[in-house]
Amino acid sequence: MKLRSERIDRLTVHVYDSRISMGQAAGREATERIKRIIRDKGTANIIFAAAPSQNDLFASLLESDIDWSRVRAFQQDEYIGISQDEPAGFGNFLRRTIYDKVEFKEVHYLLSDEDSVQEKMLEYEELLMKYPPDLIFLGVGENGHLAFNDPPVADFEDPKRIKIVELEKACRQQQVNDACFTSLDEVPTHALTLTLSFIGSVPEAICVVPNIRKAEAIRQALRGPVSTECPATLLRTLRDAVLYLDADSASLAFSD
Question: Going from the N-terminus, what domains does the chain have, and what CATH number goes with each?
């Protein structure tokens, strides 16, 4: 059940009573957007977020009537120095939760074990220029990050499309909190990520954020100043973005 909707700057925010209803609603909107893009352009280029926060959205999408054979799938971030066979690898997470469940036109992974990181960055940039993304799915980290743009490396005017970043401790701890790793020492220290400037250039964005652990980050994202101290404040500046929350993640941003 929807609890409220509000416009904050340019961002539309919807709050639902549970993460299941949140995911279903986000999935319905995403389905309509993807079908419209396919109808208008023939194919849709979509960037997926790899995080447990997206599971309810993915479940809804998998029940839809989207023609996935007309969808190119891209990835927004990936650990450096982790085998892609590891369950916690983002490419493997996406393969397990959505990529292997439907027949995509193409799936483009950010890294594989054989890749040179620098070469893959150039290759991925070329792909993103050849197939400009139409829609990006996003989550928000406990530290307010978008993709792996943690506050220390966040740059709204980043000249790059993709870059190597060092992950701050709060970001790495979230991976343990999400049960992706059993200890902080297991979490890689570096990653590839799409930059905030590139994320901001994607025409449409759907951000899905459940969980009480995200409540403070969402409060800052919606009520604080637009600043790289909370990278998710970028959402309030995007031309066509919608944020889906459950009651827990919205609890500090909405007092009534």
Answer: 2-246 (3.40.50.1360)
